[in-house]
Write a structure and sequence with these properties.
Elements lengths: L20 H7 L29 H17 L1 H9 L9 E2 L8 E4 L2 E5 L3 H8 L4 H12 L5 E5 L3 E4 L5 H11 L7 E2 L8 E2 L22 H17 L9 E2 L3 H9 L52 E8 L17 E8 L15 E5 L7 E3 L2 E3 L2
Length: about 375
């Protein structure tokens, strides 16, 4: 994830150093006996000649003067260069600690966010008359389609936060999520006051996405990640963990595709976990993270299995939405946007543009979350 820039020079540690004039005179201009060989410590090819010509005293004095000026004028820039810190490259992955989520760096770019009139007609044509009323209201909340610029690159969780990862947070902090959980029960939604993320109403493993977590629970988890890294002295220079903005979430889910889903317009079979997706987990519960194909940005499970919290407050359409990928912190902030559809959703909901909301304190056994991280 980090690379080393700069010219590699060879020196014979057994015969002298660069500061030894006699050895330098003897070595300079002499072809290395193992031309083209690999330095056993650096793992790269060695140079043909042992050392370059030494700059004259006037040149050295000029370079020293330039360096002093740069230290005065742009100390932060030189410090960053000297530290060797290079932002992670798009497509690379990293994990900041052993029980931190694995992250994928998402490239910057532009995309059309939301649903076009043509796509709305396409969705309406795939449902029956009764469902069409719900679909019309839903796609209206996904309009108008608008151009959004995402930049600079940022990171998203490769998977939704898993039950095992959330359990590590609970063990470490003693965090309690009281208030019960809403269960899906054949299109009825009773509240189970005594149940929660550790008892969501269906079997789970530690690899399943955590559910029965509210927006506030997700924010507590994010704060723990950042506190954990700072305490360990391992906070990356680029930024902190957070929830993704709604625009970042859709950009990551689309992965440069303008079809209804990242794999195409049709739902197909075995591409996700929903009611009608053709998977082993349809309408039963969550699938273990990574059970389906990865999208073009390297993300798993963005559609189906669990809906995912975002940072944004709820607004009923995109008429005044930000165009820079930032979170929309206006509107009804007692409710936050959730994305992606889930194991109980009808298949028409599993679209990159589909959106709905939930109360920030609300917990349901079909809602989880995925973290984001600023890296530039």
């Amino acid at each position: 994830m980090r690379r080393l820039d700069g010219q590699v020079m060879w020196s014979d540690r057994n015969q002298g150093s660069w500061g030894d004039e006699a050895n330098e005179h003897r070595l300079c201009g002499t072809p290395h006996p193992d031309r083209g060989a690999t330095d056993p410590e650096l793992g790269v090819g060695v140079a043909r000649y042992a050392c370059p010509r030494r700059p004259g005293s006037r040149v050295r004095s000029a370079l020293a003067a330039i360096r002093i000026v740069l230290l005065i004028c742009i100390p932060n820039g030189l410090a960053a260069a000297d530290s060797g810190a290079i932002p992670p490259q798009a497509g690379s992955t990293f994990r900041d600690c052993s029980n931190c989520p694995e992250m994928v760096v998402i490239p910057d770019g532009t995309f059309l966010m939301g649903t076009s009139p043509r796509e709305a007609e396409q969705v309406l044509g795939a449902v029956d008359f009764i469902r069409s009323f719900v679909v019309k209201r839903s796609v209206a909340e996904e309009q108008p389609q608008h151009l959004v610029r995402i930049g600079p690159p940022f990171a998203l969780g490769k998977y939704p936060v898993t039950r095992g990862e959330f359990a590590a947070f609970v063990r470490d902090t003693g965090y309690t999520a009281t208030g019960g959980c809403i269960f899906f029960d054949n299109h009825r939604y009773p509240i189970h006051p005594e149940d929660g993320w550790d008892n969501p109403g269906f079997p789970q493993t530690n690899l399943d996405p955590v559910v029965c977590v509210g927006w506030q629970d997700a924010q507590a988890y994010v704060s723990w990640l950042n506190d954990k890294l700072e305490t360990n002295g391992a906070q990356r220079n680029e930024g902190k963990y957070r929830l993704p903005t709604e625009a970042e979430w859709e950009y990551g889910a689309r992965a440069n595709q303008q079809t209804l889903r990242w794999w195409g317009d049709e739902i197909g079979r075995g591409n996700a976990d929903c009611d009608g997706c053709g998977s082993l987990w349809d309408h039963k519960g969550t699938a273990p993270a990574g059970s389906f194909h990865v999208n073009q940005f390297g993300l798993y499970d963005v559609l189906g299995t669990v809906r995912e919290w975002t940072e944004d407050c709820w607004n009923a359409d995109y008429k005044a939405a930000p165009s820079d990928g930032s979170a929309w912190i206006a509107g009804d902030c007692s409710e936050r946007v959730i994305r992606g559809g889930d194991w109980s959703s009808d298949s028409w909901i599993l679209r990159s543009a589909s959106r709905t909301r939930n109360d920030i304190a609300g917990r349901a056994n079909y809602v989880g979350f995925r973290v984001a991280k600023t890296v530039y």
